User: What shape does this take?
Amino acid sequence: MHILITGAAGMIGRKLTEALVARGTVRGQAITALTLVDVVPPVLPDGIPGAALSADLADPAAAPALIESRPDVIFHLAAIVSGEAEADLPKGYAVNLHGTIGLCEAIAAQEGYCPRFVFTSSIAVFGAPLPDVIPDDQPTRPLTSYGTQKAMGELLISDLSRRGVLDGIALRLPTICIRPGKPNAAASGFYSSILREPLTGQEAVLPVPETTRHWFASPRAAVGFLLHAAEMDLSQLGPDRALSLPGVDATVGEEIAALERAAGPAATRLIRREGDETVAGIVAGWPQAFDPVRARALGFEAEPDMDAIIRAHIEDELGGRIPVAEDGAD
Amino acid sequence: MHILITGAAGMIGRKLTEALVARGTVRGQAITALTLVDVVPPVLPDGIPGAALSADLADPAAAPALIESRPDVIFHLAAIVSGEAEADLPKGYAVNLHGTIGLCEAIAAQEGYCPRFVFTSSIAVFGAPLPDVIPDDQPTRPLTSYGTQKAMGELLISDLSRRGVLDGIALRLPTICIRPGKPNAAASGFYSSILREPLTGQEAVLPVPETTRHWFASPRAAVGFLLHAAEMDLSQLGPDRALSLPGVDATVGEEIAALERAAGPAATRLIRREGDETVAGIVAGWPQAFDPVRARALGFEAEPDMDAIIRAHIEDELGGRIPVAEDGAD
Assistant: This one.
């Protein structure tokens, strides 16, 4: 079983690599080779045969070179993120659209080859006006170039799956929370930072009202979605291979309440309210909640609530400790 | 005012060219140049400055060469039709997807240029299961490669219009009826031929039950849609630049009844019922009717009924005469 991961140096790519190495098998077969690729060279785990490659999917030669060895399972995570795809129109289209088309066409060019193809789409395929709870049959009307590129990829993967070129699925990941690492410039960054920073005793800024509702899953759940997508019988999806995934809908106020249950007022008092109308305006157009009936019926599982999302972060990123609570006990 | 038409040698392309020459202006400005392009060289009408070019949009060099002269209005009609896009997967993607992307990217590469871009999409962006009457917010879930390529084009045009690269619109044309010319191999061909052949005293074969319902507009209405799309203020559409258009929904039985009203039983007795389960199976998955509220509000107009569709054919293709009725009077 040869596995290819594009975007392998990213946060989800690294966690997916770890999880694959830990389990050692996919679909009951031993993982015999792992090809990791990203624009910065990913780190190949010890003792696993394979390759860690630096390649840019905006280069038309990249996809054929990656597909030549006919990997059995392809996790296509590589993407220019939302903000950058909006700021740099040609770059976003080069990687997010042409990169995906290039992989698909390189697969189509191989005779008698039909790999499992797991593509990370996004809830950004949906744009306002949106219902409070988005059903599975919501039309994809993106309002960003990133969402457009992902929606185009979804269509391509459904068609090529129907045509037998690949056996594909497009996963519309919820906003990942709690995203580990440093605060970043993404408009959605505060959803994670108002939990992540206070847990370690750092201050965080909240730029929107506490009533703002959004849709979340942990990094652990995201890796679980990808593994389930690689394992399951995709013919169950029928011709539409794009799927809105389970998650937790929570207001910022509910996030803060869950933080207080986990780490006490020593944590929540580190959240500084500093309204930012630009950020509030951007997130006002985002999906608030989904009713992902299809994905749940197909066995995709997320955390039940924000408490579980915080618990996953404490276990996976903080070694089971809550620094701010320990400081408070000093 | 410089106008570019791709697919100009096709039936709609030729009728659009005629209509543009007849009116002489677009958006109140005189047409000063007409560039007609197709894989077979189109015919440039007498007395109009411009060029008739042979070019294949599957060739990546074609689009930049066409866009270099910065036409003010682009009618992008060129496409591999549904049956061929299904039979030849690479060819369909090369023309219908890469050809459209190539034009858009050539436009984006020109500084300070934002042409009107009128793209012919298709009701094939919708696939079964479908409601009896399709609303404007129906999700695009194509079940053919052609429909997929058109749906991807729609997304691209909406995004690039939002980004100010072009001022675009994607028109989901109804099935054109009565299509002039010879019977062809398209699965939808009988919808036209059961009217067209009997009007001139020829026999036609009906392969489906008379209860089969479908969605039609005349060639004259299709040209009207294209001209209206070139003239109107597209900002009225908002961010979703794809539009299901008005048409006439009619069963085969209603088509035949209208034929009898126009040309009498001498025409309708030329229809030979010869059931074809393959054709019946294909058309069973097609849209039956639409409720195109947006397009009607934006001033797009089709015929009111099948009688008017037949009348348009008699006027535009038969010089106002009904050969079968004249034969009958002999």
Summary: Chain B touches chain A through 28 residues (CB under 8 Å). Residues 2-173 of chain B form a domain with the Rossmann fold fold (CATH 3.40.50.720). The mean pLDDT of chain B is 95.
